[in-house]
Write a structure and sequence with these properties.
By secondary structure, this protein is α+β, with helices and mostly antiparallel strands. The chain has 10 helices and 11 strands. It starts with 17 loop residues before the first strand and ends in a 17-residue tail after the last helix.
Length: 294
């Protein structure tokens, strides 16, 4: 966890953000060691030759978009919509199709579940499905400082942004340790977890677990479990040349193939078959996602 702001950017490259992947105008940047408990990944989009269409799915996190140049529009539930130049999207969002037309210099921040709270001072339950302007959540001086990062390199944007986010870090908003333990259990088991058993492991009643998890993350335990299982399925399906959906359904704990298809379509907005037909443009560089077996 963070000690003091003055220590945020100190000693050693291991404590600084670092580029892990670059290709075709898209850059992945891991967070600094001190923010890795809160931020999962930064993704930078730059140039005129990005894939025209990228599909994004619910991934159990709150996200922030910062657009320094043109702004992509997105399609959700079949309808086009535009987002503010700087905005936040909560963890309970629907699948979206982002359309890139123009010249882009955009930074995407994917927080870990509940990880945005100490930086923003808001609870995830307060965030809606629609994008919220960042200037309604951050002080004006901080928004202005972010705007001034437009001419910086992707890595320098992230280094400075981490410093700005850490200013005003609120320890009172850190996640309860038992709830964090529960989320870790869900992730370790790829969503193959029973809510009753999870509550027992954490020495909580089911009602306490529901209330505390909802308070900390904005999602119910069941929703987190379903989303984690879905994200594991995405990795598995994408990295299998000719996936056997019946086998995948059983491996991931679905009762049958029909259950698997319903859940997939609910979270993806498309069927598994449609996903296979267009997976070269689905999500953020699916061919570079972590290996399913990692």
């Amino acid at each position: 966890m963070l000690d003091t702001v003055s220590h945020l950017m100190t000693i050693g490259e291991s404590n600084l953000p670092g580029i892990t992947f670059e290709k075709g105008g898209i850059t992945y940047i891991r967070p600094s060691a001190r923010l890795s408990s809160y931020v999962d990944l930064y993704t930078h989009f730059e140039g005129k030759h990005l894939p025209r269409s990228l599909r994004a799915y619910p991934q159990n996190y709150t996200e922030i978009w910062i657009h320094f140049a043109d702004i992509p529009f997105y399609i959700s539930s079949g309808k086009p919509a535009y987002m503010p130049a700087m905005c936040l999207i909560g963890p309970n969002s629907a699948p979206k199709e982002y359309v890139f037309e123009g010249n882009f210099n955009s930074l995407h921040i994917a927080f870990r579940l509940g990880g945005e709270k100490p930086f923003l001072g808001y609870l995830p339950a307060e965030f809606q499905d629609t994008p919220l302007p960042l200037d309604s959540l951050l002080p004006r001086w901080k928004v202005q400082a972010i705007c001034e990062l437009a001419l910086s390199s992707p890595l320098q944007q992230v280094i400075t942004l981490e410093y700005l986010l850490a200013l005003g870090f609120q320890y009172d908003f850190d996640m309860d340790t038992r709830i964090q333990q529960g989320i870790n259990i869900i992730h370790q088991h790829r969503g193959r977890v029973d809510v009753m058993q999870l509550a027992h492991q954490l020495n909580l009643s089911e009602r306490q677990l529901l209330r505390n998890v909802k308070f900390e993350t904005g999602l119910t335990p069941k929703k987190i479990i379903r989303l984690k299982r879905f994200s594991s399925v995405l990795l598995h399906v994408n990295q299998t040349p000719l996936p056997d959906f019946t086998r995948i359904a059983l491996e991931h704990g679905y009762s049958d193939q029909s259950h698997f298809i319903r859940e997939f379509a609910h979270f993806a907005g498309i069927t598994p078959t449609t996903f296979l037909k267009r997976r070269e443009t689905v999500g953020f560089l699916l061919d570079e996602w972590p290996t399913y077996l990692d």
